[in-house]
Amino acid sequence: MDAADEAGLRDLAKRTKVIITAIGPYTHYGKPLVAACASAGTDYVDLTGESNFIREMIDTYSAQAVESGARIVHSCGFDSIPSDLGVFRLQQLATEHLGAPFERVKGRVEGMQGAASGGTIASMMAVGQAAEENPEIAAQMVSPYFLAVGFEGPTQPAGNEAVNDEELGSWSGPFVMAEINTKNVHRSNMLLNHSYGKGFLYDEMMFTGPGAEGEAIAKAIAADPLGTFVGEGEPPTPGEGPSKEERDAGDFTIAYHGSAHGKSITVRVAGFQDPGYGSTSKQLAESALCLLRDDVPTGGGIWTPASAMAMPLIQRLQEQGVVSFTDELNV
Question: Counting beta carbons within 10 angstroms of the beta carbon of residue 160, is it exposed (0 to 12), middle (13 to 18) or buried (19 or more)?
Fold first, then answer.
């Protein structure tokens, strides 16, 4: 079906309980389907990392989705399920074992093997183009609270320079997906009635190792984070991406750390295929099945994975062998 066929999309939405879309760049092609689902009361999941698109959907269709009962859940892939659910789980454990959430949480990529596709790069370019065309939106997108509409919290850690994480024993460099993941985590906090606290601080970076070698790698990533992500040579075009062998060989591990009063908790989230393609497709499908089959009481609106599905999705992802969540408690 043509993504611009509004009548066809409305008819599809009326006949469907939940729709999965991977149509990016969503900025260019995604709006009519969200409109159709919001009108029909049809649940919807996507894997967008385009914060400008998400914000436009929030501003335009939130009230209609609430009224119709449509559960619109963005970012149900590598961005931002590991971060969104990892932080949710960490703060749940902190509240359970320490009596309060952590005020400061560090997300650190411990390992990641995968390749960018032309579609991902096209989505990144679409975000940049939107920012260039609308300076007002560009100024707003810089804020970590861009998706936490109506809330402005404390200044957040920048995450865009090389940092020596002495507490964690490693240098860290910028993580290219942090730009969308941090925004979704802050939106979840807002939608969960600030259960992480209104003073919550969060950043995401990549471990590069200790010592002089770790420092050099961290500084190289800080100098060119996008180039590090895309790799050398001509970038792929839409429709091109990692081979089946590359997808099967990929993996990722991201650790979410919190500490307070000499006690600490880490939640380690791991996936077992290429993060952007082997794992993301499964995360997206399981998110749709969670809305369709599991006991998810969330009403209509525009949500994040953690605010919409939380523990039912964590349990489903683990049971299906898609993503693992490992808790490490020093309490």
Answer: middle
pLDDT tens profile 289-314 = 999 999 899 999 999 999 999 999 99
Instruction: Say whether the peptide bond before residue 80 is cis (omega within 30 degrees of 0).
Output: yes
Buried b (16+ CB within 10 A) or exposed e, 46-81: bbbbbbbbbbbbbeebbebbeebebbbbbbbbbbbb
H helix count then E strand count, the chain: 14, 11
Tell me the whole-structure pTM to 2 decimals.
0.94
Question: What is d(CA 74, CA 80) in angstroms, rounded to the nearest whole number?
Answer: 9
The set of residues, in sequence order, having a beta carbon less than 8 Å from that of 282 and lying 6+ positions away, is 273, 320, 322
Return the bridge partners of 259, or none. Answer: 264
pLDDT > 60? residue 278: yes
